[in-house]
Amino acid sequence: ECPEYEEIPVRHNEDQINREIQTFLPIKLDVSNWESSHVKTHLLYQAHFSRMHLPVDYITDQRSIIESCIRILQAMFDFCVEMHLLNTTLNVLILQQQIFQARWYTDHPLLCLPHLSAHSIDGIGPLFSIPQIKERLGIYQLNNGQKLTKKEEKRIITEFCSKSILSEKEADELLKALLQWPILSLEQIYLLPQQKKQRQKFEEKLIINVGMNGKNLELSASTNYKFFVSLKLCGPYLANSNAFCPKFPKKRMAGWILLLGDATTNHLWGHERIPSLIEEQKIARLRILTPNEPGIYQLLLLVISDTYLGIDQQYMLNFKVV
Fold it and tell me: What sections of the protein cross the membrane (predicted)?
């Protein structure tokens, strides 16, 4: 139980309301004390992810816990990183994404966009992610500084309206949100031993081939390496770093987090936080220490948004420690 939530009030008869609210939420609590502040807090988080309509007093309490939870999540993240826990670190970041987007991780990613329902998604593209739908509409290919012409905007809005029950105004707001969604491309990775000046360089295609073909990049045991990851923002409106999270009560600058770890052993090798990307290209640096024991290590490089659901990326890297 988190002590910060002990002060969340449980008013007269709210124990009954808590019981009723739970019937509409996906996670059922097996508790006897429905007057607990912690039980109510858990329900408020679930209601936030489900975008459930609540009584006025509950909305006030929900806003209070949502505004204060980011520092708690940051402390959880720092602890997980310190303990080198890959899966738990990833789960904390997914929880943070859910907080900002007011959606469950298992929801269709297009539901994060305004005015879209399950019915609308069926018409627009039930199998599309947000990056895929941006690519299909021709938004992904635009360079920094380029904007859609009025004719192109009209074409997309008309397509949205024809394939859904959205009004023209709703389709226009949907397009504006879609343009704001960041798309990140991993360009190159460099690996540099701290003791040597020689740099090993391989491109994204080779990274993927390394994972698929079983070829391994040799690293020395018990050695510190610098891991350089070149990232590039794609599409228009790159200078706009304000995140689209209308259900979060405060303004948010979207950032990214890189995780490098062994999914088999759940060991986090390294991480790097990128507060926000307002320039088109960025080189992130991770410091890693290779294990003492020689062997083959299959690592995951995860590129995680700290704000958005549905745009995370993962790459498989094979290393041979000698």
Answer: none
The answer to whether the Cα torsion of 249, 252, 254, 260 is positive or negative is: negative
Alpha-carbon gap, residue 317 to 121, rounded angstroms: 35
Rounded CA separation 140/143 (Å): 8
Distance from C-alpha of 255 to C-alpha of 276, rounded to nearest angstrom? 4
Domains of the chain: 3-83 (1.10.3380.10), 109-180 (no CATH), 183-321 (2.60.40.150)
The Cβ of residue 296 has, within 10 Å, a number of other Cβ atoms equal to 10
Token pair recorded at residue 314: 């993962």
Is residue 228 helix, strand or coil? strand
The CA-atom distances, in angstroms, between 271 and each of 82, 90, 284 are 10, 11, 10
Name the token pair of 164.
């859904």
Residue holding tokens 């709703």?
170
CA distance 223 to 210: 21
152-187 pLDDT per residue, tens: 999 999 999 999 999 999 999 999 998 888 888 887
Q: At what angle do helices 56-82 and 86-101 cross, to 10 degrees?
A: 150
Give me the pLDDT at residue 204, please. 41
Residues 6 or more apart whose Cβ sits within 8 Å of residue 26: 46, 50, 104
Number of Cβ atoms within 10 Å of the Cβ of 274: 18
Average of per-residue pLDDT values in the chain: 86
d(C-alpha 47, C-alpha 124), whole Å: 27
Q: Indicate the helix (H) or strand (E) that contains 210.
A: helix 204-213
- In 3D space, the residue among 283, 153, 176, 185 whose CA is nearest the CA of residue 237 turns out to be 176
